[in-house]
Amino acid sequence: MIEEYLDTITNMENYADGIIVIDQEAKVVYIRQFKPDLSPLDERRAIGKSIFEIYPTLNPQTSTLIAAIKRGETTMNNQETLTTSTGETFQIIDNTFPIKQDNQIIGAVSVATFPDKNFTVSGINLYSDAVPQVKDLYTVEDIIGRSKQTQDLRIQIGRVSTTSSSVLIYGSTGTGKEMVAQSIHSASERKNKKFISQNCAAIPATLLESIFFGTVKGAYTGAENKAGIFESADGGTIFLDEINSMDINLQAKLLRVLEERKITRIGGVDPVSVNVRIIAATNKRPSLCIQDGTLRPDLFYRLGSVTIDVPDLRDRLEDLPLLTDYFISLYNTSMHKHITGVSKEVMEIFKTYAWPGNVREFRNIIEGAFNLCDGDVIDIGSLPSYLLSEFNLTKPELEDEDAAEKILWEGSLKSTMDAYEKKLILQAVSSHKSLTAAADYLGITRQSLNQKLRKYNL
After folding, report:
1. Whether this model's pTM surpasses 0.70
2. Widest Cα–Cα separation across the chain
3. Helices 413-430 and 435-442, interaxial angle, to 10°?
């Protein structure tokens, strides 16, 4: 779970001399320091170890990381002395905050600076003008599928990429909102400039503001002269994911930047002109975000001059065969296997399942199946139990796998899935006042619901 946030966390490397991320059990899942002459700490060997193995003298009662994972506390500008397992002692100033998912604490991150001037900082700026883009960006050709929804999405991207207007992308979790944002940038006149992605979730407003606008030395303890992402991306594109998770006051400052095209670093007085295109995204409908107070209406009106809805996977099921072939080819290359496809039983499950996690979930299931499949074709024995349980199916016994699959497919698998779908439709229709509301609950169109009602004679 916490791995999903590492891309966001590593974006903080512009603003820190060291970063460490721990999970709920205080084990290190990510660590990076930019003063290698400070300590012989082997970053690779630190992964998976307890924070107390890395820093044996750390006091659980006073540790800001422990306070974050145990009590959800955020600590800013904390001065602390650390001693490594090899005996080196040094001073840090750190900002520590919990990482949350669905209001549950899943870990903590400490972003530290080392004020000791006896050591030379080997500063690394991921977005320095001297550093090229770290990775190739997605293009519209990377959006797999032949369905009308996918074709319409490609057309929208092509049209939007010819302008510099702000864009607001809506899509459920796992639909590929950042892929869409990168594709817009890659097809635009800004394609040779920087594309910077920033997830706005689970980051305190004070830290996110410094990431946005940069800092002036002396603005607060440990602050240095550092550019924010608006300066770093000048001429390019900034993608702000989960913008509805941003502090409402910071949203007001972002709106002012969009209107004035100028930023002022924290602690500074001189405004700096910036030329960036903003692409924002939310996994909740903007109208609902406005209603619940997580998105300012005026920011929505400014960002929403162009809106793109990314379809759920369940609304473009005809793309499944192409997606299946694509991911099988991808994992054949990375895992050095020779899998040719999926069984008809598996494809039937794929076409019937609701896919709440969308393409991300589909990709993970294919990857997991690659780890379990011992033949040329992915069968139901390679699928995760949670997916099979949706259709009241269980993994066949290994010693009689072929026979078990044959029994399941001889009428019982399709009828089980039909019965499951019929049950969901009946529950939705009976618990909602209208067919439109029931269709929205099921995540399908009213037209699709009518077709299914006719299919099952309901």
Report:
1. no
2. 79
3. 130
